[in-house]
């Protein structure tokens, strides 16, 4: 704790600081609550995406033997050309928003390719979209978690340190100034008695 001056100016400064801390604290607490709510929503959405991906994976299992045919379903048959994202803002935190993705499908001969290839490509697109959205949501959650830590530290700083410290400083200055005023009155009375007796 820094040493404070025991003056009226310092008393005013400390009172102004206390007002400022008490004015900002509710805003910080509201921001903390909003961040916590957004993190919960983001986690729920990530869970939904995982469940959807698991559901698609289950349907893939019945086709896995067919997809395993050599030379038909190659790694380069489907690729991501572009990931479309945007920027959003939650409680002052810039976050990425997933808007979709553009895919490139390698050309293949419709006559010599099996019928299931179109279905497999579409399912792979679905899985990739889910993965890309989940990655974007993980980035959102990471940024929101970081801002929540910072906001929580500020709330704790104001609640547990700054406000009590400032109140203590105000009390200390008021006691000192009260003692000084009382001493001045006593000195005045003594001086008055001394002048009356002379």
Describe what you observe in this structure.
The chain has 198 residues and is of the alpha+beta class. The protein has a domain of 136 residues: Helix Hairpins (Orthogonal Bundle). The chain is 71% helix and 13% strand. It is built from 3 helices and 2 strands. A two-stranded antiparallel ribbon has the order 1-2.
Key terms for this structure?
198 residues, alpha+beta, two-stranded antiparallel sheet, 71% helix
How many beta-strand elements?
2
Whole-angstrom Rg: 34 Å
What would CATH call the architecture of one domain?
A: Orthogonal Bundle
Helix content: over 70%
Mean pLDDT, nearest integer? 87
What oligomeric state do these chains adopt? single chain
User: Strand count, sense and closure of the main sheet?
Assistant: 2 strands, antiparallel
Task: Report low-confidence residues grouped into runs of 5 or more.
Answer: none
Briefly note the structural class of the backbone.
Answer: alpha+beta
Shape summary:
rod-shaped
Strand content: 5-15%
What top-tier CATH class of one domain fits best? Mainly Alpha
Tell me the number of helical segments per DSSP (H or I, 4 or more residues long): 3
What is the H/E string? HHEEH
**Terminal Cα separation, in Å?**
49 Å
Biggest sheet strand line-up:
1-2
Stated plainly, the CATH topology of one domain is called: Helix Hairpins
């Amino acid at each position: 704790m820094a040493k404070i001056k025991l003056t009226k100016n310092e008393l005013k400064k400390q009172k102004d600081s206390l007002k400022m801390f008490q004015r900002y604290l509710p805003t910080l607490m509201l921001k903390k609550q909003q961040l916590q709510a957004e993190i919960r929503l983001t986690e729920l959405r990530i869970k939904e995406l995982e469940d959807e991906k698991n559901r698609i994976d289950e349907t893939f299992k019945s086709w896995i033997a067919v997809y395993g045919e050599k030379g038909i379903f190659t790694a380069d048959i489907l690729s991501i050309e572009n990931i479309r994202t945007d920027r959003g803002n939650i409680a002052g935190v810039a976050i990425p928003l997933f808007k979709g993705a553009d895919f490139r499908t390698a050309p293949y001969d419709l006559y010599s390719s099996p019928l299931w290839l179109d279905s497999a490509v579409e399912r792979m697109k679905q899985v990739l979209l889910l993965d890309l959205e989940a990655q974007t949501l993980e980035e959102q959650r990471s940024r929101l978690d970081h801002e929540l830590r910072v906001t929580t530290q500020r709330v704790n700083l104001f609640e547990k340190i700054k406000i009590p410290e400032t109140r203590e400083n105000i009390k200390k200055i008021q006691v000192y100034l009260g003692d000084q005023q009382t001493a001045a009155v006593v000195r005045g009375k003594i001086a008055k008695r001394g002048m009356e007796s002379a």
